[in-house]
Amino acid sequence: MQQQLTIILSVAELQALIVDSVNIALDAKAASKDTAPSGQKVLLTRKEAAEILGVSPATIDNYAKAGFLTPQKIGARNVRFRYEQVISKK
Q1: pLDDT band at residue 35, thresholds of 50, 70 and 90?
Q2: Which long-range CB contacts under 8 A does 61-68 form with residues at least 24 apart?
């Protein structure tokens, strides 16, 4: 006999759960095909871009707001930065 589990969620909690699940799936799909032939990732997270440029992730946000870097939206809340653009700013 199968056991059933009932979970009570608000509409907002359910929406957040769905959005998070979709973002995880999109990130996994993007990660599987965003690798350049050299093995270097084509899309970088804020943290990865910050490490390459030697700045903090907050500075990467400021660069994006100022137009110094162009963020690529991944899902509703996540952004990535193109490797080529980050390297060109080094």
Answers
A1: low
A2: 63/89
Question: Of 90, 18, 17, which is closest to residue 81 (Cα–Cα)?
Answer: 90
In the chain, where the domains are located = 11-88
pTM above 0.90, yes or no: no
Distance separating alpha carbons of residues 86 and 24, to the nearest angstrom: 24
45: Cα within 13 Å, side-chain hemisphere: 8
Rounded Cα distance between 40 and 21, Å, is 26
> Class of the 11-88 domain?
mainly alpha
